[in-house]
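Methods, example record. To illustrate the input and output format used throughout this study, we show the complete record for Epoxyqueuosine reductase. The sequence lines were provided to the predictor; the line carrying structure tokens was produced by it.
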Amino acid sequence: MVTPEQIKQSLIQETERLGIDKIGFASADPFLELKERLIQHRKSGFESGFEEPDLDKRTDPRLSLPNARTIIAIALAYPTRMDDPPANRPGAYRGFFCRASWGEDYHHVLRRKLEGLERHLRELVPDVTTEIMVDTGALSDRAVAERAGIGFIGKNTSLITTQFGSWVYLGEMLVDIALPPDQPVTEGCGDCTVCIDACPTGALVGPGQLNSQACLAYQTQTKGFLADEYRDLLGGYLYGYETCQAVCPFNRGKNFTHQEAFRPDPEKVKPLLKPLLTISNRQFQQRFGTMAGSWRGKKPIQRNAIIALGRFRDKSAVPDLIKLLQDDPRPVIRGTAAWALGRIGGSEAEKALMEAEQREQDSEVQKEIKRALKNRITHEKQENEQG
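The corresponding predicted structure is encoded as:
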């Protein structure tokens, strides 16, 4: 009869064949400390709204798999650099998808790896019961990975591994058999606060504490109007934001390209901005549908592209932005186009804004148009003084 330790070692060996970078084993006991933190997190209004709302499900593995005894956690490393990335040029400015959206959607890749591990486990224990989770499951992937010894949760709230830094995707499988658990990693961030200091919105309100509502990565995924205070902070990001990872000393010099599925297509992850303004739903799905950054659809991506063009003051985009202001059925897109036209300025943009002011019926878009006309004067004055 195969022993629990033999099952564990066989699974570890199978990870090499499956191309899994790290594996760890943890008990399926409730995450009591995590639950207390989540309760305070909710009271502070720091949730994003994308999480599982039931805090018991988020912290008790047995509500996802009755009789769960062990959680098997895995991690896959992803790249941080592109070969020959396309450059920004006047009239051909580009946006940027964060590294966590490079290559094939990691949810699918991780699930395939876990399903391969599950098949191997069934060869050893035919009657085992399992439950696979990848990001969208109830449990906290980072809390599971930390308990399983894959890494530690840093002050930027990311799971940090010694070998790969925080550039890893996480997933787990609950099983109803007891396997020897691994020891949690004892390493930590020490006195370093570089991620907290670098956060442009102050979303990292303390070590390991994130106000998700203020996080730019979250803001890129919302579908409404982006608040003024975030528009100038996005840079060229279309999806996600990763300054808190980029500045982390544990991530310095890390770039792993061995996972073929995550290798980026430069034209997808750093696309031209102007074509995004007129892309159809079908074209969007054909081009970006296999990326994790497509999950919210094209609207947030288009809104963020408009903001980037406004920040770049790309005069060549004015005709496309005017068309959106005049014809797009979505108030968020019309209003954001008005903001961008106000930032870019010029007689053509001003005329379009004044005409739109007379016919626009939506109150939010009206506000954006009026502010664009007012701010246009301010921006032009500032530019003249700087020139």
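Annotations derived from this record:
The chain has a mean pLDDT of 95.
The first strand starts at residue 22 and ends at 27.
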